[in-house]
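seq as requested:
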Amino acid sequence: MSTLKRFFKDTIIYGFATVLPRLMNFILVPLHTAALSTGDYAINTTFYVWAAFFNVVLTYGMETAFFRFFSQSKEKSKVFSTAFITLSLTTVLFFLLVFLFRDYLFGLLDLEPYYFNILLGILALDTLVVVPFAWLRASNKPIKFAGVKIINIAIVVGLNLYFLWWVRKFPGSTPQIILDNYSDADKVGYIFLANLAASAVTFLILLPYFFRTKIDFSFPLLKKMWKYGWPIMVAGLAFVINENLDKLLLKDMLSDEIMGAYAGCYKLAVFMTIFVQAFKLGAEPFFFNQAKAENAKKTYSLILTYFVIVGSFIFLFLVTFVDFFKELIIRNNDYWIAISIVPIVLLANLFLGIYHNLSVWYKLTDKTRIGMYISIFGAMVTILFNILLIPVLGFIAAAWATLAAYASMAIISYFYGRKYYPIPYNLKKIGGYLMLSVLFSVFSFYVFRGNYFVGITLLLIFIGAVYFFERKQLALIIKS
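struct tokens:
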């Protein structure tokens, strides 16, 4: 099997592990927007914003560091053991500190104590399985990885449907003990409990992997992993700012209702998010494993080209049918006031995927600190755009801030990459496909919105252009 074929195969499996759970999770968007007011949806969003933030802090770049050293080391059990023991100890220390300052944190995070305690449980369980999940990916076991992920999300979706729909619609078939303790006023709490239950089951499934190697802790190795990983942690925090600060600022600067509507419409970009995440899951270990191959740089270049082609098609397709997806997924029209953010957020996420691809240079050259600086720059763009423009433009400024941040990060990363690890990217093709999809999307959304005849015609023209220019290369990949 050729290198590219193996990459596409692993990415498809990882994509399945990401796409299927996200599609199952997608069921929850109409369920949540129907069951929750925009104000309650703001509480739900706030909870998961802080979950994302603390997840980065608790893992502090150890996952990527694990890939880096696992792929190179002959003592792979030592890498696994060192990473796992370190994460376990720091997680325990973190929760001891949180316990001491919990009264202060309730107000700081703007979460009720009950929700805060659930958040801590989810964070603890999810952090402890980071290394076992990373081991599955690094050891080329995408099917097992996918299976565990699917079980996790199936529990989340199943419990959400049960508590937010079944119990309310069919109380006669619900056990009395549940009815006696059920609170229709606290529907958000059931969403969080479903996540806690899924995290607990995932932890139990992966528990055998905790004991698959002997205890072989190496402090010198830990120092190397920390030096490599901490800039990635800072970059991760910057990413959380880019993804989530807008929502918190909209809540504070405008209202809970506006923030809830914005967060709900933001979910319509989920298909692009799925594509980007699937690519990242497949690409990260692949890039490390192929670093010493003779044609590695040419392979990386081709991967970015086809990433942009697929991403540009997804972008154009979703913009063309945005009103169809809006009515299908967000059935509460209180949320629709923010629908104009969707094309901007979709394009922002496409640029994020381009940045993930371009970031190969600093990960392979151990210059993660430069990657950290780029991410910090993106976070600064996000902060400035939001603070300065939300009072002037309203919620649409938050979407433009996200696009400006990710586009600037991709551009800066490209120019730094040319200096430290030059890759012969085909900028004419990449730029051409990207600009064509943006141009067609502008026509589809702002000029011919709702005219699916025009939209589908533009999609077919885009597909035809891809076929015309890529048919020879695709034939080579298929035959190899």
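The radius of gyration is 23 Å.
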